[in-house]
Design brief:
2 domains; 15 helices
């Protein structure tokens, strides 16, 4: 929008925050895969549901549960178990060799379970009035309620991890929001490049891949639809834009100047560090909070800013486009 660079500055900031958040999303997913956090959280939730790891381990040996993991990965646990499959597997485990549709076998099998599990399952069996199908439905609902709580555990753990990753990223690259704003405001070429890259990412969203970590139901460990926010991987142009931010280079140049003037020593370096940290502290804090909002949030904000910019174009700008 000619004559109104403040909107382009806002677009540039939202776009940079989106790229930072996507970087955290990728790191979060790598950590989740390496640590198998989803599978671990799911196992812990089922162990709590059944009153201990013993029964959970037995249930995980059921054929319908084992089929959810790669057989070539020894000791792997599934990160997703459908409620209906869990209910059938649990009923089959209860009835042993008898039919899962035999009410007497279900009632007898419940009595042999640990107290924590048998108490709840007996109540569900009584509420189902002895009907096996109704019993399995109630077990499915019981499982889903536990997964809702487990999703909250997982979300809080991921959120804490996101704050840590955001802080590491911000300090490592010196992502100061105040400096980013000043750079976007004063550097026309940088601002234009950021707006053009933002436009390209929005246009590419229709057929692009989606982030592997951002879900509509708050990072549920057993379900969720990914939010459309563009490709996870940064393009070459976006990477080049981020490398042009400068990072710690201006601060290192000031340190070199201080060393030339005052000599090298811990007093000079500590004074430089204190001065640099003090000048960046507010900007670091803002960036960490912005990244923690997540990629879908910033993509939505970026989309709204771009729509506002497009509707506010001057006639001559529309013809050039």
């Amino acid at each position: 929008m000619p004559g109104f660079p403040v909107l382009d500055v806002a677009i540039g900031l939202a776009f940079l925050y989106l790229l930072f958040a996507l970087t955290c999303t990728t790191l979060n997913e790598v950590i989740a895969i390496v640590s198998r956090r989803r599978a671990t959280t799911l196992y812990e939730a089922i162990a709590q549901l059944l009153g201990g790891t013993g029964m959970a381990d037995e249930l995980y040996q059921h054929a319908s549960i084992r089929s959810l993991v790669n057989p070539r990965t020894p000791g792997a646990k599934p990160s997703y178990i459908p409620a209906e499959r869990f209910a059938v597997a649990l009923t089959d485990h209860i009835t042993k060799k008898d039919s899962v549709a035999d009410p007497k076998a279900i009632a007898a099998g419940i009595q042999t379970l640990p107290a924590a599990a048998s108490t709840q399952l007996l109540a569900l069996f009584q509420l189902s009035e002895g009907h096996p199908v109704e019993f399995q439905r109630r077990v499915s609902d019981w499982y889903n309620e536990t997964m809702d709580r487990a999703s909250g555990w997982y979300k809080r753990a991921v959120q804490r991890q996101t704050y840590v990753l955001a802080a590491i990223l911000v300090l490592w690259l010196n992502l100061d929001s105040v400096q980013l704003f000043n750079r976007l405001w004063s550097d026309t070429a940088f601002r234009t490049a950021a707006v053009e890259q933002a436009k390209a990412r929005i246009e590419a969203t229709g057929t692009a891949e989606v982030p592997v970590m951002e879900y509509t139901d708050a990072d549920a460990i057993d379900a969720g639809t990914p939010v459309q926010t563009g490709t996870v991987a940064l393009t070459d142009s976006e990477t080049q834009l981020l490398t042009s931010l400068g990072g710690w280079q201006p601060d290192r140049q000031r340190l070199s100047a201080d060393i030339v003037l005052k000599g090298d020593g811990w007093r000079v370096r500590s004074a430089w560090f204190a001065r640099s940290a003090g000048s960046h502290l507010l900007g670091w804090f803002i960036t960490i909070l912005a990244i923690s909002l997540g990629a879908p949030f910033w993509f939505d904000v970026l989309n709204k800013f771009m729509n506002l910019r497009n509707t506010g174009r001057a006639p001559d700008e529309r013809r050039k486009a």
